[in-house]
Predict the 3D structure of the following.
Amino acid sequence: MSDDPAVLEWTVRTALILVSGLCLLCGYRVVQGPTTPDRVVALDAIATNVVAIAVLFALQTGRGLFITVSLVLAIIGFIATVAVAKFVTEGEIIE
Amino acid sequence: MIRSALIIALIVVGVFFLTVGTIGLLRLPNVYNRMHATSKPTTLGTAAIFLAGFVSFGPGNEGLTSLIGIAFLFLTVPTGAHMIARSAHRSGVPFEDSVVWPDKSTDESEGEGELEQSETADESSSDA
């Protein structure tokens, strides 16, 4: 990671900014989503985007720890989605 | 030099697919369509960025972690999308106009366990 050409640094930084913007756009669907499953889908999309952000951050700083962080984020995102899907089935009635 | 070019290409592909997934999430009309948008391209985009991590960190322990991450994502995101689709259908989110669930009678069977496939199969074929 020592001899990083400037263009790689620039690309990783731009990618980080772009994916963060995408997360904000997904946030719009979380707020706007007419039904609860819409919000669950949007939050799942945000979770996957954050996994991508963690890997990009690993690329930017050159530390391998953040790849592991992204794997843990993927696991937690999946468990959260399954839990909420189960809750929506049992707990809530869509009026 | 080749390595960073490859990393840049993978990152560009990854961000492109993430953008496609997010646009699909915002634009598509129904929760079921949106699920296609968020489960397929978003996973592909994140897998491409994981590959960029693999190329950048080499096949050492970090590279292996990113490969495991790719496999994990390919296994779990479709499962999560399926769970959401079922919960959406169970809680009464309507389909688009002409779509119907293949075996109608599974809605009433509350328990996940006993899905009488044989009985529902001939019933759905009779009224199809």
Observations:
- Chain B touches chain A through 53 residues (CB under 8 Å).
- Residues 18 and 42 of chain B are 5 Å apart (CA to CA).
- Helices of chain B lie at 2-27, 31-57, 61-90, 117-127.
